[in-house]
Amino acid sequence: MVYNLLCQLMKGRDTALAAMLLVFVCVASWGLFQLLSARAAFLHVGAMMGSFMAANVFFHIIPGQKKMIAQIRAGQIPDAEPGIVGKQRSVHNTYFTLPVLFIMISNHYPMTYSHANGWLVLIFIMLAGVLIRQFFVLRHSGKASPALPAVAVILLLSMVWYLSPQTIDNTAAGRVTAAQISRIIDNRCVACHASAPTQPGFAVAPLGLIMETPQQIAQHAERIATTVRSKYMPIGNLTGMTDGERAMVAAWYAQQRSGP
Ligand code: HEC
User: Fold this and answer.
1) Which of 4, 70, 103, 208 lies deepest, with the highest CB count within 10 Å?
2) d(CA 84, CA 61)
3) Mutation test residue for ligand 1: of 181, 188, 233, 249, the one with most atoms within 8 Å of CB
């Protein structure tokens, strides 16, 4: 099945183009990740693939069909070439579908793009998407193999393992006082999470979460610890939170839970 998929992609004249596309998408994922912020890199890979899909339809699939229909109308034997090219481009679009869909919603899954090797994470998720798509393609012809989604699930589970947040070594942070935490939250979070945010573009506190007083910080301790640990917050690390400060937040939260 996986082998069959490779064979299908590598068949004859399609080989070079399919291989080039595969390499191109992988290199683009890596390259954009070096150039842009991680969130933007994911979206640009998706925008690029989406543009391929649209261009395939507008420049190959539709003109090819029009040409063949015109030839049939004129009583000629239609040239098979545009049909072959159109088929090839629809095959490409088929395998692009799930990766592009994932990228469209990827901004809601910061654990994927915020990983140090986010580009690699994206490539593996896209591969899983291709395998799952291949399962549905084969199902239409009654040849579906359960091994395809099984391999995709193994791939995704390996990603989950790879993405699980590394335990932050909070022993180095020692005992952390509430005053230290208040200062960190003040410097890194309150620009947005305040009753009157100072961060440009924020009229109100996001999700109504305000962290200005020690009481408010204590009240949201668990959510603060979770989002700081996963690096979801500060969003885009706009306020430049350091790893040392993240370790202190983790240590503080561990202290809170184990009691004073
Ligand atoms: C530049 C603005 C900004 C800064 C700085 C910022 N946040 Fe946020 N925060 C947001 C936005 C926007 C959301 C809403 C995100 C969403 O809807 O997924 C949010 C949501 C949250 C949530 C709720 C997330 C959830 O899914 O439940 C928590 C908790 C949070 N922030 C904690 C923090 C902490 C802790 C810091 C500082 C270390 C911080 N934020 C710094 C903008 C910011």
Assistant:
1) 103
2) 10
3) 233
